Amino acid sequence: MAGIASQYATSKNKLGVALGLSGRQIANLLDEGMPAKTDAGFDIDACRQWLAGKRKPKEKPVGTYAERYENAELRKIEAEALTKELKAQQAEGKLIDREEAFMWACQLCATIGTRLDQMPEEVTTELSPDIRQTMRERITEKLDLIRLTMANERLPGIDEAVYVLP
């Protein structure tokens, strides 16, 4: 079979037509590592081979229908048991709602912010006036940086549905 040359597509759209994909799909696949365009264009055969290696056939369900149904029922029962357990823990006061936790975190942050605002005055009260002013400015700068960092970061776990109390 010597002498058979690969076919090349000169654009993403033409490659898409050759592979039966949209231009957007081609762009996404190129981002994932599909062979890029060369001076000759996109090597259609190389792209097909890359796609064949990337795509895996769908796995067939394992077991009989009755086994799969039984497994699904088991997962359903486990989920219901977990839901009951969480509701019981909430009733016992061991869990709090996400909204309550978020409000508590906001109040805590506000309290910390107020306390941080008072720190420069408290720290510098026993210093000479010129050193006091310099220290106040430095502390305020650092605190502003901390506040900015806190404002740009989310608290870990804030997106959880419930919080476990110790």
Description:
This protein has 166 residues and is mainly α. The chain folds into three domains: 8-54, no CATH class; 60-92; 95-164, no CATH class. It contains six helices and four strands, in the order βααβααβααβ. Helix 1 (12-19) packs across helix 2 and helix 5 (98-124) packs antiparallel against helix 6 (129-152). The N and C termini lie far apart (73 Å). Residues 155-166 have low confidence and may be disordered.
Describe the structure concisely.
The chain is mostly helical.
Number of strands: 4
Strand content: 5-15%
- Alpha-beta content class: mainly alpha
Overall 3D form: flat
How far do the termini sit from each other? 73 Å
Q: With helices defined by DSSP (H or I, 4 residues minimum), what is the helix count?
A: 6
List low-pLDDT spans.
155-166
- Helix amount: 55-70%
Radius of gyration: 31 Å
Estimate nothing, just give the exact number of structural domains: 3
> Overall mean pLDDT score?
76
- Which series of helices and strands comes N to C? EHHEHHEHHE
Largest sheet: 2 strands, antiparallel
Strand order in the largest sheet = 1-2
What descriptive keywords fit this protein?
mainly alpha, disordered C terminus, 3 domains, two-stranded antiparallel sheet, 166 residues, 6% strand
